[in-house]
Input
Amino acid sequence: MNTKVVKIGQENIDQQLIEEAGAIIRAGGLVAFPTETVYGLGGDGLNRESSGKIYAAKGRPSDNPLIIHIADLSALPKIVRKIPVAAQKLAERFWPGPLTMIFEKADCVPYATTGGLETVAVRMPSNKIARALIEAAGGYIAAPSANLSGKPSPTEARYVIEDMDGRIDMIIDGGAADIGLESTIIDLTGETPVILRPGYITEEMLHNTIGSVETDKTILNGNSSQAPKAPGMKYRHYAPKGSLTIVEGQAETVTKYINEKIKRCAEDGSRTGVIATDETKESYFADCVKSVGSRQDEDAIAKHLFRILREFDDEDIQVIFAESFDDHGVGCAIMNRLLKAAGHQVIRL
Ligand code: TXA
Ligand code: MG
Output
């Protein structure tokens, strides 16, 4: 398949290209597009065959449900059985934005989209290109992150091209994603709302809007015997080709430990890399040292993490060490993704 790549600016949207992309989706095809979190791989969420194509293009297990993206709150009642009061409040506060809510699904939502579940995940993105595309496509775009299954979610179009060229109809390049981590997912189908995936909208922000919320215990715990409630959270994810180990401890001890390990790896002939911060990047001797940003700036760390994980692949780094981050606020999402990328390999000093 020939994949058409087009550039669209958020501030000056080319409506003709958007209509072309919308027509592809309405006809059952696939278009990758930017959102404020990461790039999505979009198909018609109410068309069983489109969802099937999404799984095939990603190489994704078909029990892993897709998120339906809407552009307007008026589109919600058609695809869900009921809208709990908490969902109404969260929608008013955080939509459009990086929050996904789980509802009981209406009959028109195919099981192919929900991975066989009776529930459906819904999000209203804020990115203007995404919103225009959803409208042009008929209102309901099912979209997982636009990466091949197992790879870090793409935060720039060049990574979508790397993974999806030849597999889908069109890729819309709308520049780098603002947030860089996927949306927070909250399940509103039980008695107490439960966070299934941490993201930019933090537990505290949710708590301040709807009161009591729980967090799925498996989010930061690699040894949990429980299965995570979001099916996708159980899969190996975000992993770079090299082996990644997180090193936790006091800054100086961490630097010293990592440098000793790097020296030994270099003696064995392995290429080494470090995920460092602006504060520490000068202290490492690895072949490839990358700063995710300043420790003081969690937003920058969130924004750069996935890109940096991919860059180590480009440079054929075999052994990677990462500093650890505070797991409060947005840090919870950062550590959740980093721990998954590392397969929960952590050295605590
Ligand atoms: O920011 C995002 O959410 C991005 C952009 C493109 O919107 N999308 C995204 O989709 O991250 P994906 O498919 O890569 O991740 C969706 C996650 C998976 O872990 C999936 O298991 C979970 O949402 N999920 C979807 N529907 C669900 C449901 N009904 N119940 C529980 N978990 C669900
Ligand atoms: Mg994904």
